[in-house]
Structures are given as C-alpha cells and as structure tokens.
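User: I want to check something. If I give you two sequences, will you return the structure for each one separately, not as a complex?

Assistant: Yes, each is folded on its own. Here is the first sequence with its structure:
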Amino acid sequence: MKLYAVIDTNVLVSALLRWDSVPGAVLEQALVGSIVPVLSDEIMDEYEEVLRRKKFPFQEQDILALTEGIRKRGVFLDPAKVEENLPDPKDVVFYAVTMEARKGDDAYLVTGNTKHFPLKPFVVTPREMLTILENGGKPLQLDESNY
C-alpha cells in the first residue's frame, strides 16, 4: 500500500534537524516507498533553496542524499491553478500540486503549519500522516473539532 503526499519544506527541515522525530519518520517512509512524494520542479527548487540556507547546519551530502532520494521516488505533476488565497504565496505550489494529485488518487499535504492552508481533511500533520499509514491508508475521521 502506497500513499501519495506532498511534503511541505518545514517537514524536511524538521526531519534533518532531528531524524529521530515524527517528521523524520515521515521522511523515512517517503525514502523507503510507503509514501510516494508528489513533486513539481518548483517544489524541488524550494527544497534545495531552503535546505541550503546558512541558518541551517545541514551538510551538502545530506541535502543531496535527501533531495535525490525524494526525486528518485517521487512523481512529478504540473500544478493546476487554485482559487484559494493562502497566507504565504510560497505555499500555493504545495497546495496546487496536492489538488492536482487528488484528481487521480488520494493524496495528502503533510505540513507542520496546517494553519497556512485551508481546513481540509487531506491537509495533515506529520503525526496524522503516520497514523494514516498505521491504519493501512485509511483517512482519518476528522471533524473541525480536531483543528
């Protein structure tokens, strides 16, 4: 069973800062194939630009291993235009690619900043993504009280 997910950059940063964390576990699942990363060229550019910022202590070989692993295991989509206005314009591509992926499969947007996106059951935290994996891919039964 494979799940498709657009992984927000903040999840990658958190994972690289502390691999033995929930975001690290999500990223590990993306690298072993339980989660299929859904990507676009713009998302990959964002990953590489953010991970190379001087404020982060990441080694170049770790950045390359991560981005190449994601690229090799991911599927690339061209995002459709979305109507929603998001607080951060850089987040639009993540949401747009998720919406494009959802046209053919269940797909999730995994983020540590759920408040930056519309309140939708497919916008999940890293912990929620792991729970979905543990439940055999069954979506969480969420209502607005979970947010």
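And separately, the second sequence with its own structure:
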Amino acid sequence: MNRIKKGDQVVVITGKDKGKKGDVIRVLGDRVVVSNINMVKRHTKANPQAGQPGGIIEREASIHVSNVMLFNPATGKGERIKTKVLEDGRKIRVFRSSDEAVDA
C-alpha cells in the first residue's frame, strides 16, 4: 500500500518549494507530481498535426516521495502515516500522531 496516493494533499518538507502545499496529480513509483510544486520550463517544438503550439511551457516536474508529507487538516501540519489492518482484513492509512484514519 502506497503512503501517498493520487488526490492527497501534501506538504513539501525539503527543497526550493519547502513549506508549500498541493494536491498529488500523479504517482510514478517512488516519485509524485504535485500541483504547482517544482515548476520547470520546457522548451517545446510546435506540432501542427497535434495542434500543439511551440514555445516555453511551464509545468510540474516530479518530486521524490520522501520529500513530501501527508497534510493533516486537524493539526494544519504535515504528518507521518502508518498502515493499520482492520478486523475485516482491510488496510487503511492512519496518522501516527493521532491514530485517526486518513481515508474516510
């Protein structure tokens, strides 16, 4: 079970975007793409067949999953998480500090 999933709100804990919050757009193995975090400029060539204009496009680059923490709305901070197995055999993610479930 992945600690970070698509749609989660995360806080960046290291790097140039330290302290910023954003939603996870994609999970790529041990890397994640977070909205408006780690923005890079990409110089693209025009492709008229695909209707794609050329120029400098700014988009999100991936960031390593160890550099983000799941955001806990109750405390307003990023927190560590663990997995817990319920009686019926399902695994859920819970915050380590409060033992409250991440997934509703």
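Because they were folded independently, the notes below concern the second chain alone. The chain is about 0% helix and 45% strand. Strands lie at 9-12, 21-28, 31-34, 39-44, 55-60, 63-64, 68-72, 77-79, 81-85, 91-95.
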